[in-house]
Design a protein that fits this description.
- The complex is a heterodimer of chains A (about 150) and B (about 500).
- With about 150 residues, chain A is mainly α.
- Chain A has four helices and no strands.
- Chain A is flat and about 55 Å long.
- Chain B has about 500 residues and is mostly helical.
- In chain B, about 75% of the residues lie in helices and about 0% in strands.
- Chain B is globular.
- The chains are: A mainly alpha (about 150), B mainly alpha (about 500).
- The interface between A and B is large, with 66 and 60 residues.
């Protein structure tokens, strides 16, 4: 059976709603007069889950377009590139992490060539140091920290 | 007379060298992103927000506003020259604008678009100045219950009048509200959904979230679509001046477009795109010879271009006077205000008049700047059209990464952004709209606060919301909207209006 868009959407909402209720269950609800920290989140989560259930039920009755497979490379590479940046920026500094970010990102594009990507990475890294560190004076570490 | 003193105050603020500079940067960047492919005002305003932390709040808001209305100008340039709308509010400008360009009249088309936008922007600025004080007076005596009801109505309207399936959009608002609950509860000091992470104790950073949702998701989608093939117009733009006949035909259309745009811009959710469509449809309906439309009718360009710019500006009215965002860009403006320590709401007008009037005056100055940025400098923008996306998106990535990191110098925010980039992509695949999520997230904490206060005042009696007349009317309006949108023919009617 192919999973339709509405079914997947409904399931996602049910999961979010259920998580929302589960993760707040240890906090007090309070009363309507003195509303506790859990009341609004629980109420909102419950409605989300309810909408999800409605969508799941509706998916049985009304057809919606099936989910389509998409190229996974751009998704994975872009997200990995930013993750690498996040891991590197505090220790390796702006220059290294920018180079890594751009090279990994460029790899996600359809027409990847090493020459174009390296030139681009070097130029943009120089630009980012100039703009963020020299002109905007942001508290960024530029070079790797050895200790 | 008060209006003149107020505007004088605004002009004195906006004409300081610093604010003029930021107004120029904003409108310049706005035009640029309007022209550049695959880069919208939502993503860019988020990207630049962290870099405004060091600025005075007025300068920051002047710049961010400039980006937004500047993008409407730039978007029309690409629509006319290469038949690709730079922004979704300039989709209809392609129809007659590009036809004019194909007939060798690109110059006059660009001029008319710019002149129409300038007229619309100026009128809308005055309208904001006139309408805002009375609106904020009207809500000054609102209690917590009325405020809660107003927010419910604002959210409902902005979600249901915008694109997408109503049920899914409502779900997205609620998910946004849930995200807004993350962090330390202001009333009890309890941690909610923080997973004992220090980075979440002050709430989830809305910059990281919206940069993930709008910036990263946009990059991924553009790469998947393969944004490499764009037809570039090779002919050069010569002779900007429209003829006397052009002006005579365009003038009434500009006025009608301005009127429609100003009106629709105030409505939550409608905004620039809907008003440009409405303006086009009306021009076509009242034209003596409707068959000219689509073949380079100058009214078909002048009216929507005026309308989208007017709407972009009047959409500031509910945001500035009520503290309620009607569009996602306005939600970002509210977020920006809060980051600068300004509580959004009707008190801005009385407590921070220099910010309020300075921002409004800057819009008029910005529109004048845009005229100069766009017309004599058109050559620069045409050459910018040739930048291929594969050279552009790495630059966008750098801005996203450094921007989100510098919010609080924490890698944690970068990871939050990545997580929401993925979440946004999944939501896109499932055909959810992302904008309602942002609206819910920004309004969530305020709504909860008002709800709690209303309950304390009413001693826990929920019926307070229906016993207070203003709150009752507001909630009934929200309910009515919800019911009509659930009707089967609502969507087809609304979308039909958009497609015509």
């Amino acid at each position: 059976m192919r999973i339709s868009q509405d079914l997947a959407s409904g399931i996602l909402l049910v999961v979010i709603g259920a998580l929302g209720i589960f993760l707040i269950k240890d906090l007090p609800m309070g009363t309507m007069f003195r509303i506790g920290p859990a009341l609004m989140p629980t109420a909102v989560s419950a409605i989300i889950a309810l909408i999800g259930l409605v969508m799941v039920a509706r998916a049985w009755v009304i057809a919606s377009p099936p989910l389509q497979a998409k190229a996974i490379k751009p998704v994975a590479m872009v997200l990995l590139a930013f993750t690498a940046f996040g891991l590197l920026i505090e220790t390796a500094g702006l220059v290294v992490s920018s180079l890594v970010l751009i090279l990994m990102g460029a790899f996600a594009a359809e027409k990847f060539t090493w020459k174009h990507s390296i030139v681009l990475a070097v130029l943009l890294t120089a630009f980012s140091v100039l703009l963020f560190k020299v002109m905007l004076k942001l508290p960024l570490q530029v070079w790797p920290q050895w200790n | 007379m008060e209006l003149i003193t107020n505007l004088a105050l605004g002009l004195s603020v906006a004409f300081t060298p610093v604010n003029l500079l930021y107004c120029f940067i904003g409108t310049f960047v706005g035009t640029m992103i309007g022209v550049l492919p695959g880069l919208g005002p939502l993503a860019v305003i988020t990207m630049l927000l962290p870099f405004t932390f060091g600025l005075p709040p007025t300068s920051a808001l002047i710049m961010l506003a400039g980006i937004y209305y500047g993008a409407q100008y730039g978007g029309s340039t690409t629509a006319i020259l290469i038949n690709i709308p730079g922004e979704n509010s300039s989709v209809v400008s392609c129809l007659d604008g590009h036809s004019m360009a194909k007939q060798g009249r690109a110059g006059p088309a660009l001029s008319i678009a710019a002149i129409g936008s300038f007229v619309a922007g100026s009128v809308a600025t005055i309208l904001i100045a006139v309408a805002s004080p009375s609106l904020s007076l009207a809500v000054r005596n609102f209690g917590a219950a009325e405020y809660f009801a107003l927010m419910v109505l604002g959210l409902t309207a902005s979600v249901l009048l915008a694109r997408g399936s109503p049920i899914k959009s409502v779900a997205m608002v609620l998910v946004g509200l849930l995200l807004g609950f993350i962090g330390t509860d202001a009333n009890t000091g309890e941690s909610r959904y923080t997973f004992d992470l220090l980075g979440l104790s002050d709430g989830i950073g809305f910059i990281a979230v919206s940069m993930g949702l709008f910036g990263l998701t946009e990059i991924i989608l553009n790469l998947q679509l393969g944004m490499n093939n764009r037809d570039i117009l090779h002919s050069r733009v010569t002779g900007l001046m429209p003829t006397r006949d052009d002006l005579r035909a365009a003038a009434p259309a500009i006025i009608r477009g301005t009127f429609i745009g100003s009106l629709l811009g105030v409505l939550p959710g409608a905004g620039a795109m809907v008003s440009s469509f409405a303006a086009y449809v009306i021009e076509k309906k009242i034209a003596r010879d409707p068959s000219r439309f689509g073949n380079g009718a100058i009214e078909g360009l002048a009216a929507p271009e005026s309308a989208n710019n007017a709407a972009a500006q009047t959409s500031f009215i509910p945001m500035l006077t009520l503290g309620i965002p009607g569009t996602p860009v306005m939600a970002l403006m509210i977020g920006a205000m809060m980051l600068h320590g300004i509580a959004p709401g009707p008190q801005i007008l009385t407590k921070q008049p220099e910010l309020f009037w300075g921002l409004i005056a800057s819009m008029w100055i910005g529109n004048a700047m845009l005229l100069i940025i766009n017309l004599p400098m058109i050559g620069i923008w045409v050459s910018l059209l040739r930048v291929p996306y594969r050279s552009l998106f790495p630059a966008i990535m750098i801005f996203c990464a450094v921007g989100v990191y510098t919010v609080s110098n924490a890698s944690f925010d970068v990871f939050v952004m990545v997580a929401f980039g993925l979440f946004g992509y999944i939501l896109y695949l499932l055909d959810f709209e992302l904008a309602p999520l942002l609206l819910g997230m920004i309004l969530g904490p305020m709504m909860e606060e008002h709800f709690r206060r209303a309950m304390v005042v009413a001693r826990g009696d929920l019926s307070t919301f229906v016993e207070r007349p203003i709150s009752l009317v507001l909630l009934m309006m929200a309910l009515l909207l919800l019911v009509t949108s659930a009707m089967p023919n609502f969507r087809s009617k609304r979308d039909g209006l958009l497609q015509e």
